[in-house]
Amino acid sequence: MRLLNATSLKLEEFFDDTLPPYAILSHRWQDDEVSFQDMQTCSALQRAGYAKLKLCCDQAVKDGLGYAWGKLILIPTSVKVRQQLAFERLGSHIPAPRLSPYNWLFTMLIRWPVDTCCIDKSSSAELTESINSMYRWYQGAAACYAYLFDVQNDRASFSMSAWFTRGWTLQELIAPARVKFYSSTWDNLGTKADLKDEISSITGIDIEVLGGADPASFCVAKRMSWASQRTTTRAEDRAYSLLGIFDVNMPMLYGEGEKAFLRLQDEIMKHSDDNSLFAWSSTNENDRGLLAKSPSDFSDCSNFIRVSGLKVNRSPYFITNMGLKIEFPMIGWAMNTYLAALDCEIEGSPNSRVGIFLKLLDEKDQCVRIMFEGKDKRTFDSKLVAQSTHVEIYVRQRVPGVRPEHQMDVMYGFWLRKLPQTASEEYFSHYIDEVISRNTWNEESRFFEIPVGSSGTAGAVWYKSLRPDTTYSVLKLGFDASFNPVCQLRGSWWGPLTMLSKPGGSVDEKLDPTWISGTTDGHLDPTWISGTTDGHIFRGDRLQGPIPQVATFKNRVTRNNLPESRISIAEEVVGKQRVWVVDIELPAMDTKYLE
């Protein structure tokens, strides 16, 4: 780190463990600032920006920190120029021999291309090193002077100062332990400690941070919110000015535009598993990736905190050539749509966990982030997390255009186009005893539809036999955690003679989705299993879409001479919706159908 010796007026280089105390200047860039070339040609004195340097230097001397030039100098190559500018500026105010050689003012301005006099902007290595060190330099200063050129002595304009709207001044406010504010005429307006309540109201920065709390103790989304209303001249600087806030480093690539903010988020992911990084919002209704476009997308995250209970996201995530690979606890919310649970919640509102909407694409394990019913995230009771399933997905940041036919709405349910109503076979007759569904059942339309916010079983049709022992059989339809259609046929009508009782309780109890996993009532085999278990489970593949998925089975394996029965599941267009259509045929029996 280079500091200018206030006595010899020579630049000297120090390592971190030998740095003397120094002051640092924070200001909003204006027109006619002093440039690197001005410092070499002695024309700096004619610049309008020269006045603030005099005021800053005078204050440094008053604070016992001396003067080493000002904010706008890095390496004037001519000692003669250094001496001429310094002594012409200081005059008789600072007798050089009386200054301690360890009284310094460090004001190494590195925000190229805004403040071009500090570094050689042709050196990308020097630029990168300076920007990556900025937060640490401000943090190590004995004092930081914030010069508010647009604030008068009456203090009424303090909250309206442009200094509070600039991207770079965020870290210049947070990093130093001691910040003193000065008006346009260099009148003392107060310190960060004195004004922290007002500054917090102006900036949205938590009072604890202004009091010295480590920014890392706050979730990523909240820290992003501090920068959401701030602007920079260059789009890249909105990202570069946040490196210190998130304690990450990355090279500078001016010309990359908004890609810089994507790179920043990538670096944050490499060093933190805080997935509140994905808790941003946007009014853009197009499908998106998981990373935000700019800090502005976090404007509504100022009251977000890390979850107070157990974190549920447990696997690392990273960017691959197929997109961001990540595992979320997913709650089925609508057709092909998840509510993914994040490990953050609303401050002061227990059980207000934040979730975002992700939609499956017509590619295996590929998702996009979407808006659902006008919202791209929602809060929910943490108890719902217990109903979630951990699903590993890939999310591309750049989403390819969606073909018009794939924009058609998909019904979250089934159409039972051909459904057995009664069947007779010697002494073995059945009829529909009860239909249980989450929607109102209509015998003519025969739709099972799952409401928004629910998942699992769409409905069940219970058949009753005319046997003296009154056995039951059941047809269940639902979707698994990957939104594949699943059908279960269980009981004496569909297979071996089995004593099956019809459950009681609420609709939710009757439509318990545990059967879908196949852990108790069947198998995960994608074909019918007959004669070996108490029931059959057929699991379709959502990626096959309109291709009919057909399976055959023995209606009663105790009568092997019976012709095979048949079930077909296919995604078809019905009206203006894509719907999973189910057809069941029992050719071995005298069967009456609902169709």
From TrEMBL:
<dbReference type="Pfam" id="PF26640">
    <property type="entry name" value="DUF8212"/>
</dbReference>
<feature type="domain" description="DUF8212">
    <location>
        <begin position="259"/>
        <end position="284"/>
    </location>
</feature>
<protein>
    <submittedName>
        <fullName>Vegetative incompatibility protein</fullName>
    </submittedName>
</protein>
<dbReference type="InterPro" id="IPR058525">
    <property type="entry name" value="DUF8212"/>
</dbReference>
